[in-house]
Amino acid sequence: MKPATAPSPPLSAHLKKPLGPILMLDDIREGQMHLAALFIAPNGQEMPPIELDGISISAENIATYQHVTIWRCRFSRPATDPSHYRWNGNRFDLAGCPEGAMQIAYVSCNGEEHGDLTRDGDERNAMWRQLAETHDQTPLSLLLHGGDQVYADEVTLGHPLSHDWPDRLPRDPSRGDLVDLRDHLRERFLDRYIAVYDTAEHAHLAARVPSLMQWDDHDICDGWGSLRRSRTYSPVGQMLFDCAREAALLFQHGCVDGDLPARFADPTGLHLGWSITAPGLRLLAPDLRSERSRREVMGTSGWRMMEGAGHTPAPGRTFVMSSVPVLGPRLSVLEWVMMAIPSMQKYEDDLRDQWQSRAHRDSWQHLLEILQRIASLDGQDVTVLSGEIHLAARGEMALGTGKVMHQLVASGISHRAPPKAWARFLDMLARFGDSPLPGHPIQMRPIPGQSHRYVAERNYLLLRKSEGNWQAQWALEDSGPSAWMPL
Ligand SMILES: [Fe+2]
């Protein structure tokens, strides 16, 4: 039984001073990092400008809520050299993205489905604190967020149209009631973002390390895109998506419709896939949610971006962000078992979210062929970064050219791990292996220092380039940092 009222307090009403700066990397072009600094400020407060070498750049108002205004300031800093900016009397240092030596962090699953707003902050943000300390020792160039930046599942509570989402929905809500629902959802999405951004641990990093984000289902609602059409395409479902998307554009990308940064492949934002190219490095992030249905992972426009990336030269390393893992155990067996047992069918939606679902086998092969094509050129390598499963793991696929494609899974930064028994079960399932591309078997392997393939601890990932070579390290909450693994 769902609670009768929304559990979240109106955090926006209690904000006393601006939240921010929260830095986003808009793009890298012509030797410059193009940045957006985002602020969430109480209505009516003056917003100090960003200061660069004696030049003041004013912030612009890009959205208004009941109690707060969203401000954004766009500015540029050198792409490959350290630099800094100032705001409100404080200096913030930036590492830049030097080609020879840089460190990037990857995080995912920043929250939990139920009661995330009332968790103890020390417990919830323990891994964020560790990451902030890591940055103070070895500055991070970029912070990649691989999905579930917020867990918005509870935003639907407390409004008569959406309180029983997705189980029971009004068939024909009036336009007036839908406008009321929009106001309800907008304010509650805002609160979710304030809750994660208004913590000392996150704020320290967000002001000093440009973020790049890719959403997953919980940024919208659990299972978005894998739910039945009667839910997704209902008036309430579409309003939920529109409000989630507006919030993601604002708080994950620092923009609104009509002014998407140049890294996005589709300026209209039908899908939110993007790519960033720096010397020796490409970051490629398809949008696996905007165009998703129970039959398709991406639409024509999303696939066009990926095919284009497969044919565009990208010397060095391409890190592909796929919110759900591309390499994993043979889940189609599990899916078949769940379909056969009526009480398990609700979990089928979760499996539909995976590349390994029987419904997406063609899409999975298509993606793997694109990734294989990228790595088929001399001087080009590809590595996949994913989250979603609340476990740490890694996989490999031999590409047939003497190269190996690594799949690195890091999840979650604040979502607690599932029972160890689930990790052992996946470990057992992974022994079966899978070969979606004939002759290229997928193998899940233990993270360095671990005896099992799936680690049930909170975690994040560090990617380090030194002397031209990339390495990965998992920061595991109980086991500590893994050994650096060459990629
Ligand atoms: Fe998650």
Automatic annotation (TrEMBL):
UniProt-listed InterPro entries: Metallo-depent_PP-like, PhoD-like_sf, PhoD_2-like
Superkingdom of the organism of origin: Bacteria
GO CC annotation: membrane
One matching Pfam family: PhoD_2
Signal peptide: none
Residue ranges annotated for the PhoD-like phosphatase domain, each copy included: 125-342
PANTHER family: MEMBRANE PROTEIN, PUTATIVE-RELATED, WW DOMAIN PROTEIN (AFU_ORTHOLOGUE AFUA_6G06520)
Protein's name in the database: PhoD-like phosphatase
